[in-house]
Structures are given as C-alpha cells and as structure tokens.
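Ops channel
N.P.: pipeline sanity check, posting one input/output pair.
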C-alpha cells in the first residue's frame, strides 16, 4: 500500500457501502484521544520526544494488519507536499490541525481508509474509525477493538478518578468524540436548523460544518458530535447522541414530506435547475457546487432523479475541494482555474453516470 493509493480516489472504499438511514446519515465516526504514560504531551513536548513517538509507530505498526482492515501504512506528515496534506484533510483522513501545525507528526492508515490513527496531533494518538450510515454503537465497538490492539504495546496515561488524560480538558475522561455526518437539506430549506442548532447545543452536543470546528455547513452537511467526555461513560455519550440524531432523522423526513406535498413543483424545479447547472456549467465555485450537489442528492433520495448513485454527493464533495483539484491538475491552481476544472470534473462525472 502506497501514498498514491490514498490520493487516487476521492471516495474511500468504505464510503461506497450503504448503512442504516444512509439517505440522511452519511457516516458515523468514533474518535478516541490517548497519550503515552510518562511522556510529555505533544503541545509541550520537545521535538526529540515527538520523534521518538513517531519512530515507535513506524517500527511497530508499519505494514501490519488489523482484523479486516487490510495493511496499515504509516505516513510522516513532513514527507507530504502541501497539496497532499490538503487531500488527506479533504478525505477526513487527517485533521486540519495535524496538517498545519504538527511537524513531528504522522498518520497510520488502513487500506480500507476506515481506520485512521493520527500521531502527535493535540494528543499522542487520535484513533478514528468510520462506518457508513447511522452505526454509532457498532463504530464504538470497532474503535474499542483498535484501542485494545494498540494497548497491547502502549501504556496509556490514565487516572483512576479522571480517566484518560488528554491535552485538552474537554477530552479528559473517556477521550471520546462520537459524531455523525448528516445531510439535512429539508431542515435547512425550511429554516428549522436555525432553531434546532441552539437546542442541540443545550443538550451538550455541538453542530459543526463538514470539516469540523470552524468550518461551515457546505452542501447542507452537518457534523453532530458530543462536547462532554468527563463524568460520562462511552455508552452514555453514544446513547445521548443516538437519541438526538434519531430525532433529527425523523424531523428531516417530515420536512421532506412537507416539501413534496406543499411545494412539489418548486422543489422539483430547484432540484432539476441544480442538476442542469452541474451538467452544463463551465465555471463553478465550490459553495455553489456544494449547494447544487445537495439538491441533486435530495432529488435522488426522493426519486426525482433515477440511475444516479446515492454516493455521488460523498464523492463529488471531496472531488470539488481545492486540494483534490490541484492534485488532479498536478500543479497549484488559481481560484479561477479551480472553478473551471471543478466544473469540468463534475460534468465528466455526471456524464459517466448518465451513460
């Protein structure tokens, strides 16, 4: 497995599979923050200490295999070009923080791209595991398996009263961030997300954009995750999030039903205008492209558009991002050049699906 394998496809292998409620919940993610015992945490550690952690991972886990995930590939962030870093961020395989701020950092990626273990981000380890659709409990169980596998060789920083010790106090305890990526076009169109977001925040959860903290909800895609880890068990955190997500799924379905009943022709017109824009535009900015893709995905889910895969939103939402466009062009591109190439790639992808 080489770096090229992770760069070549916009969509990860696991994203091509369907999961429960996949018309609304695109993915479920579990992230566990862990640190080595008796080592300085990354934010205060010296470069030599961080490099020792990198060496440990490269020596112990490079080309090893875990369950059905295939071979694991260790990649040093310092060895990547700026565009390669962008691509890994756009595919959610590493965080923006790891790409931008961590010199002595790395990532251990499974062949399926379902498991990503970031090394020397805010913490020594950030274990990420993804599943398609709404599968938080299953994702938690699988993440625990990875955690136990790593703990065979690593002694974690752990306190009997506080739990797992982490750089950021908000992660102390379980070290768990559970999140789902949701496509909520109907709730957005009916302006209900403006009302729901503060209510969700009051429940100890947070609503963010597609790339997490500080990002906007492009293409009506929202990331819902827990904020509190201390004083709650992993099971409690997941069950609380599952409860809220289940309610959001039901409300999104009701909003879609209302739109199709009361604004059917307007909705159909919007969907097919977006469909036409994607098929025929010669220049398109990322925000407009994301909005149009969201409309088309909604059209697929509602049966207005046939013979188009549901996964097209997942794939094209990555394909239209700056890093992937520049990687495809094999050079840096200006904003206008990206807009032209974005339109071209979308037209090509839509044409392939129509034939």
């Amino acid at each position: 497995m080489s770096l090229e394998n992770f760069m070549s496809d916009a969509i990860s292998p696991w994203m091509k599979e369907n999961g429960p409620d996949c018309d609304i919940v695109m993915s479920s993610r579990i992230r566990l923050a862990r640190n080595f015992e008796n080592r300085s945490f990354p934010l205060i550690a010296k470069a030599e200490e961080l490099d020792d952690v990198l060496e440990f991972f490269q020596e112990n886990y490079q080309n090893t295999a875990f369950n059905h995930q295939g071979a694991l590939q260790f990649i040093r962030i310092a060895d990547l070009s700026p565009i390669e870093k962008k691509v890994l961020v756009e595919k959610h395989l590493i965080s923006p923080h790891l790409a931008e701020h961590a010199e002595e950092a790395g990532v251990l990626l499974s062949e399926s791209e379902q498991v990503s273990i970031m090394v020397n981000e805010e913490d020594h380890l950030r274990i990420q595991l993804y599943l398609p659709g709404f599968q938080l409990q299953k994702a938690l169980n699988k993440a625990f398996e990875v955690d136990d596998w790593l703990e065979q060789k690593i002694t974690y920083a752990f306190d009997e009263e506080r739990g797992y010790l982490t750089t950021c106090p908000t992660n102390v305890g379980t070290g768990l961030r559970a999140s789902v990526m949701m496509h909520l076009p109907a709730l957005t169109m009916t302006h209900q997300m403006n009302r729901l977001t503060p209510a969700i925040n009051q429940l100890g959860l947070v609503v963010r954009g597609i790339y997490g903290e500080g990002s906007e909800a492009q293409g009506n895609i929202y990331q819902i995750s827990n904020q509190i880890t201390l004083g709650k068990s992993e099971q409690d955190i997941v069950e609380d999030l599952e409860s809220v997500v289940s309610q959001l799924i039901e409300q999104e379905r009701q909003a879609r039903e209302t739109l199709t009943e009361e604004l059917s022709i307007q909705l159909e017109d919007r969907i097919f205008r977006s469909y036409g824009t994607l098929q025929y535009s010669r220049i398109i900015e990322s925000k407009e492209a994301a909005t149009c893709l969201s409309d088309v995905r909604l059209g697929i889910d509602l049966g207005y558009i046939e013979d188009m895969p549901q996964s097209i939103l997942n794939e094209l939402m990555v394909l239209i991002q700056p890093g992937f466009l520049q990687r495809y062009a094999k050079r840096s591109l200006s904003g206008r050049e990206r807009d032209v190439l974005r339109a071209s790639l979308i037209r090509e992808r839509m044409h392939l699906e129509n034939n």
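N.P.: looks fine end to end. The chain is about 45% helix and 15% strand.
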